[in-house]
Amino acid sequence: METTVVKGLHMLEALVWAEKPRSLTELAGICGLSKSNAHRLLRTLEDCHYVRQDPVSKAYEPTLRVWELGVRALRRVDLRTIAADHLRRLAEVTGESVHLSILDDHEVLYIDKVESTHAVRAYIGIGDRAPAYCTATGKAMLAFTPSHTVEEATRTMKRFTPLTPVDHVKLDADLEHIRAQGYSVTGGEWQAGVLGIAAPIRSADGATVGGVGIAGPEPRMRHADFDKQVAAVLATAAAISKSLGLLRAETAARPDRNPRSRSAPAASARRAALT
């Protein structure tokens, strides 16, 4: 175990749980460190923007970067738990594999799935990553995220199949179309012969926190009831978003909660979208 990392994490925890900014002497005592060691750790945390020092009092306090990490982790845990039943229902309605994903380091990270019962099906593993700019859930999320996120996710575009979008102008047009209709459709852009349909999941504050979609062999997907498949994906995304919003509202309304215990409208689709 890297003891310096452990000491740094203990220092950060001490600051987070403190009700007010702490002095160097106080933090050294809480963490059982010499003042020189505590000062080195604090300088490192400050350089990494996790801690700031008040220029007048010289006391230390955590920055909102810590809050941001906590919110991201909380969203991920909530999302997978809340989405589970919705994913199963979507798999039953569509008969195809269902994927739940988030954007992480500008890639798609698959955090849950329900496999299709068909012998021939699209496969992705929980914990797998994929490029956001050529996957159904990735493009659904990118279309509803800030432009700087799109720029980061498409900084290095590489071709995986002859249909992979590697032109920024075309991708921008694709994302604009996705924003207009509320869902994405990809055919063989990342994996040849696989077609996917996906929609974004929103948090209570309107931010895009994930994507849900279905994927299957292109011939079978093309012969399915496309309007029904799209409607089911949109309804699932809306239901998960609603559940996330209700959870946030209920959590915020609890005045006695212990902080230590916290660990697109449907549109008529056109089969021409698949061509």
Quick overview of this protein structure:
This protein is of the alpha+beta class and 275 residues long.
Key features of this structure:
275 residues, alpha+beta, Arc Repressor Mutant, subunit A, Beta-Lactamase, 2 domains, six-stranded antiparallel β-sheet, two-stranded antiparallel sheet, 8 strands, 17% strand, disordered C terminus
- Helices, by number, come to 9
Strand order of the largest sheet: 5-4-3-8-7-6
CATH superfamily annotation of the largest domain: GAF domain
Q: Calculate the mean pLDDT score and round it.
A: 85
CATH architecture type of the largest domain: 2-Layer Sandwich
Please indicate the percent range of residues in DSSP E strands (runs of 2 or more).
15-25%
- So what's the CATH class of the largest domain? Alpha Beta
| CATH topology call of the largest domain | Beta-Lactamase
Helix-and-strand structural type: alpha+beta
3D shape: elongated
DSSP E strands, number: 8
Q: Which regions contain 5 or more consecutive residues with pLDDT less than 50?
A: 249-275
Could you give the distance between the termini?
Answer: 54 Å
Rounded to the nearest angstrom, the radius of gyration is 22 Å
Order of helices and strands: HHHEEHEEEHHHEEEHH
Task: Describe what this molecule looks like in 3D.
- The chain has two domains: 3-62, Arc Repressor Mutant, subunit A (Orthogonal Bundle); 69-274, Beta-Lactamase.
- The chain is of the alpha+beta class.
- The strands form two sheets. A six-stranded antiparallel beta sheet has the order 5-4-3-8-7-6, sandwiched between helices. It has a two-stranded antiparallel sheet with strand order 1-2.
- It contains nine helices and eight strands.
- It starts with a helix and ends in a 23-residue tail after the last helix.
- It is 46% helix and 17% strand.
- The chain has helices spanning 3-17, 24-31, 35-47, 64-94, 136-142, 147-153, 168-181, 218-222, 226-252, and strands at 51-53, 60-62, 97-104, 107-114, 129-131, 184-187, 194-202, 208-217.
